[in-house]
């Protein structure tokens, strides 16, 4: 029986500038895929093709293309993603010698853990992200490691040991959750793409793979909503006692150091703390480094203040930032941030920190800013 798909793809192969060995192996692979009920390309054939290619750059580009093939699944789940697509772009930059292996692998390791945080929310989307992590590891590994033979069958291996293409195929064909749930037609579609379009594009080294993907952080035009908490705390004896103790600490530091102004900017999201400390002397602001012991001591006050203020008006939620300023004239100014995800809150805290914080200090829907709503929806938390 004639196979139109196979005939067309064979014509494509002939037009490609492959070696005779690669052409023969791809032809064998297409025959294998299109005459299989499952539409699968065996591990042995995949390995033989990569070994015949034996060019780290081309093999790395194949892995990048596999990551891009399933990236839309992650992006549908994680709206306005910049992290995973950023890793894919950095992997291509590494192949072009525009970034270091150390930076690439550090990012891959970080984002592997980052993706794991969403495993309970959407397994398929998480593994779509992990294909990008695998691609980065492929690019940063020695070619021999990527194209070496495996002794075991892929179906019984740990997923961490699956090659990038096989992992991508399972994300694409629906088998990542359960190997018995593979859509055979989708599987055949993926492996035909892998052997033709993916391979030919990978060999076209002049073609940038990630140019069409722009990394733009979402701009949330969030305004700080007024809170009753920020006015009524003066009537809470416990909160005022905590603030008075902090004022005494800051005043002593200010007096001892002979500064004009002391600024303690505290960020508290769930159980995670981040502090920016600075002082002003003769009109110039300088960073200040306090000991870890002192910071931990002060952070305990911040957390107690946040909890007490939250209890007074729970529907308003808890603040994420408390900036306190003491000057030599004795003024003690407090500024609260409940709604705006400023730079520190973007870089020093992960999305799951805000999800955890919401579980501790929930807030009414009218006090949930758009960026927080996106996080809660991804984590399937009702608000």
Write up this protein:
With 383 residues, the protein is α+β, with helices and mostly antiparallel strands. The chain contains 16 helices and five strands. The N and C termini lie far apart (58 Å). The N terminus is likely disordered.
Main attributes of the structure:
single chain; 383 residues; five-stranded antiparallel β-sheet; 16 helices; disordered N terminus
Topology summary:
Blueprint: H1 4-15, H2 20-34, H3 43-53, H4 56-77, H5 83-95, H6 101-116, H7 123-140, H8 143-147, H9 164-173, H10 184-203, H11 229-232, H12 237-257, E1 261-269, E2 272-281, E3 284-287, H13 292-312, E4 321-327, E5 332-337, H14 343-347, H15 351-360, H16 370-378
Antiparallel strand pairs: 1-2, 1-4, 2-3, 4-5
Helix pairs in contact: 1-2, 2-3, 2-10, 4-5, 4-7, 4-9, 4-10, 5-6, 5-7, 6-7, 7-9, 9-10, 12-13
Distance between the termini: 58 Å
- What Rg, in angstroms, do the CA atoms define? 27 Å
Strands, total number: 5
Order of helices and strands: HHHHHHHHHHHHEEEHEEHHH
What structural category characterises the helix and strand content?
Answer: alpha+beta
Q: How would you characterize the largest beta sheet?
A: 5 strands, antiparallel
Strand order of the largest sheet: 3-2-1-4-5
Given as residue ranges, the uncertain stretches (5+ residues, pLDDT < 50) are: 1-5
Mean pLDDT over the residues: 89
What helical percentage do the residues reach? 55-70%
Dominant shape: elongated
Number of helices: 16
Portion in strands: 5-15%
């Amino acid at each position: 029986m004639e196979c139109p798909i196979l005939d067309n793809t064979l014509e494509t192969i002939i037009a490609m500038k492959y070696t005779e060995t690669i052409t023969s192996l791809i032809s064998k692979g297409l025959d294998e895929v299109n005459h299989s009920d499952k539409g699968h390309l065996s591990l042995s054939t995949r390995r033989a093709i990569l070994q015949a290619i034996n060019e780290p750059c081309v093999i790395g580009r194949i892995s990048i293309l596999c990551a891009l093939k399933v990236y839309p699944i992650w992006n549908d789940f994680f709206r306005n993603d910049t992290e995973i697509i950023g890793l894919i772009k950095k992997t291509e930059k590494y192949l072009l010698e525009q970034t270091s292996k150390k930076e690439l692998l550090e990012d891959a390791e970080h984002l592997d853990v980052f993706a794991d945080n969403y495993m309970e929310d959407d397994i398929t989307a998480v593994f779509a992200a992990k294909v990008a992590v695998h691609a980065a590891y492929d690019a940063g590994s020695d070619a021999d490691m990527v194209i070496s033979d495996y002794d075991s069958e892929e179906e019984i291996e740990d997923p961490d040991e699956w090659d990038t293409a096989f992992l991508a195929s399972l994300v694409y064909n629906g088998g990542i959750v359960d190997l018995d749930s593979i859509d055979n037609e989708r599987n055949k579609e993926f492996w035909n793409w892998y052997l033709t379009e993916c391979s030919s594009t990978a060999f076209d080294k002049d073609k940038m793979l990630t140019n069409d993907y722009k990394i733009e952080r979402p701009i949330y035009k969030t305004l700080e909503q007024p809170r009753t908490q920020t006015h009524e705390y003066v009537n809470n004896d416990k909160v005022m006692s905590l603030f008075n103790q902090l004022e005494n600490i800051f005043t002593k530091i200010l007096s001892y150091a002979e500064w004009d102004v002391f600024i303690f900017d505290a960020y508290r999201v769930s159980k995670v703390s981040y502090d920016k400390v600075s002082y002003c002397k003769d009109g110039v602001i300088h960073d200040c480094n306090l000991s870890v012991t002192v910071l931990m001591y002060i952070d305990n006050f911040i957390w107690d203040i946040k909890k007490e203020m939250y209890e007074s008006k729970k529907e308003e939620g808890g603040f994420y930032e408390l900036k306190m300023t003491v000057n030599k004239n004795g003024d003690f100014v407090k500024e609260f941030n409940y709604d705006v995800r400023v730079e520190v809150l973007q870089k020093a805290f992960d999305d799951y920190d805000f999800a955890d914080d919401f579980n501790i200090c929930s807030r009414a829907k009218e006090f949930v800013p758009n960026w927080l709503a996106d996080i809660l929806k991804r984590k399937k938390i009702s608000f």
